[in-house]
């Protein structure tokens, strides 16, 4: 997803909005001072646009987590309320959405976004206004650590592993399990997520003496016919294709590749994880494809959450929904530990979080990076559904 796509005027509007908040005292930092008022939490989520299925799943899970907590009496004796803003799967809209949450809705923290570029666009707003933000599934390393300074971004956290680990897992699986020695790469040139995963895969694949036959770029949301790119890749005769994109483009790419007779394995990351992938590509085309993901819904540790989610939404949660649930409960735990909704106290509680029991795995936040150390799973798409293959722990 592009970082700023709505032009200069939207950026200036967001900047002016942030400046107004900075000059209006501490209201935006601490939320309501009424200890009986609901605790308002912002959801900067992809509720429409190219990755809407991710944001919608997360919104469902966050609401479920808050509903369950409210049934226990809430937090600090106060009910939790999710105030959602639709960022339309767009970085520029994300800046506008999170500005509204901070300046108008006076939220105490922000959950979201789900994708890396859209999350990055919100970083300056929450940082300037000192509001904690937890991305459930933004995996790009620079979300939480400024690449220019190497310093942690103090107000940004995440509930998922990061791209360097995900790319390493994918490369090792390709080398060891797929026996690949030659790989072609396809990158969404607008997406920080796609670029980060591609870089990590290439680095680790080469370390294992693999060869990159070529790299091709496409533009998510604009490109629909990938046959010229795929024809070039086919001529390179790779053993597999590393495709770190989101489900909408991935489905089209794999479908068109199979139509061109490209039957080699395709593999990517957690952006593949959505049932719509099978509707777009077709179950048969997705055979012999694999992806790195966060959770397996048949994991016994997830049984209660899966049951509760199905009972409320009549569907099985995907990884994005699961991570949304963990991010919501991580924030609840931080507020409990802080015994306050004050932004600085909640931020400190998140930074010092140890041994939090999430349904996608335990979370201990590294205070130097604000990243949790978590395992990954690898899934194979087979006969119209994802199938768990193995779990990989951090080294």
Strand order in the largest sheet: 7-6-8-9-10-13-14
Q: Please tell me what the overall shape is.
A: globular
Give the number of DSSP strands.
14
- H/E element string? HHEHEHEHEEHEHEHEHEHEHHHEEEE
- pLDDT averaged residue by residue: 91
CATH superfamily of the largest domain: Response regulator
Descriptive account of the structure:
This protein has 2 domains: 7-160 and 301-363, Response regulator (Rossmann fold), CATH 3.40.50; 163-293 and 376-392, Rossmann fold, CATH 3.40.50. Helices cover 42% and strands 18% of the residues. The protein has 13 helices and 14 strands. The chain has helices at 7-22, 27-30, 52-71, 91-103, 116-129, 163-176, 192-207, 227-236, 247-259, 276-281, 303-313, 319-338, 343-351, and strands spanning 39-45, 80-86, 110-112, 133-135, 156-158, 182-188, 211-218, 240-242, 266-268, 289-293, 356-358, 361-363, 376-382, 385-392. It has a 7-stranded mixed sheet, with helices on both faces. α1 packs parallel to α4. The longest helix has 20 residues, at 52-71.
Topology:
Elements: H1 7-22, H2 27-30, E1 39-45, H3 52-71, E2 80-86, H4 91-103, E3 110-112, H5 116-129, E4 133-135, E5 156-158, H6 163-176, E6 182-188, H7 192-207, E7 211-218, H8 227-236, E8 240-242, H9 247-259, E9 266-268, H10 276-281, E10 289-293, H11 303-313, H12 319-338, H13 343-351, E11 356-358, E12 361-363, E13 376-382, E14 385-392
Parallel strand pairs: 1-2, 1-3, 3-4, 4-5, 6-7, 6-8, 8-9, 9-10
Antiparallel strand pairs: 10-13, 11-12, 13-14
């Amino acid at each position: 997803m592009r970082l700023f796509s709505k032009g200069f005027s939207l950026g200036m509007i967001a900047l002016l909005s942030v400046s107004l908040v900075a000059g209006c005292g501490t209201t935006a930092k601490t939320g309501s001072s009424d200890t009986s008022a609901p605790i308002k939490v912002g959801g900067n989520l992809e509720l429409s646009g190219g990755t809407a299925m991710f944001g919608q799943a997360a919104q469902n899970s966050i609401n479920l987590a808050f509903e369950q907590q409210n049934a226990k009496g809430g937090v600090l004796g106060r009910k939790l309320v999710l105030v959602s803003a639709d960022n339309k799967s767009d970085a520029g809209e994300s800046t506008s959405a999170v500005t509204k949450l901070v300046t108008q809705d006076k939220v105490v923290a922000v959950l979201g976004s789900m994708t890396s570029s859209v999350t990055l666009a919100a970083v300056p707003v929450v940082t300037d206004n000192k509001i904690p933000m937890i991305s459930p599934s933004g995996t790009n390393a620079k979300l939480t650590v400024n690449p220019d300074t190497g310093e942690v971004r103090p107000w940004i956290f995440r509930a998922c592993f990061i791209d360097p680990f995900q790319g390493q897992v994918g490369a090792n699986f390709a080398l060891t399990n797929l026996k690949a020695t030659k790989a072609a790469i396809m990158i969404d040139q607008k997406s920080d997520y796609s670029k980060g995963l591609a870089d990590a895969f290439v680095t680790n694949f080469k370390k294992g003496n693999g060869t990159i036959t070529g790299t091709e770029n496409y533009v998510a949301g604009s490109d629909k016919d990938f046959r010229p790119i795929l024809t070039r890749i086919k001529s390179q005769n790779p053993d597999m294709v590393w495709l770190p994109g989101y489900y909408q483009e991935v489905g089209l790419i794999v479908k068109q590749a199979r139509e061109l007779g490209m039957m080699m394995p395709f593999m990517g990351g957690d952006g593949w994880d959505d049932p719509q992938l099978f509707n777009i590509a077709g179950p048969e085309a997705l055979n012999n494809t694999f992806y790195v993901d966060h959770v397996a819904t048949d994991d016994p540790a997830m049984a209660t959450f899966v049951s509760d989610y199905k009972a409320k939404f009549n569907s099985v949660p995907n990884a994005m929904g699961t991570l949304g649930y963990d991010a919501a409960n991580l924030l609840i735990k931080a507020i409990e530990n802080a015994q306050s909704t004050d932004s600085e106290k909640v931020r400190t509680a998140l930074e010092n979080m140890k041994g939090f029991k999430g349904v996608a795995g335990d979370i201990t936040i590294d205070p130097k990076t604000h990243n949790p150390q978590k395992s990954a799973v690898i899934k194979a798409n087979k006969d119209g559904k994802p199938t768990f293959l193995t779990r990989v722990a951090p080294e």
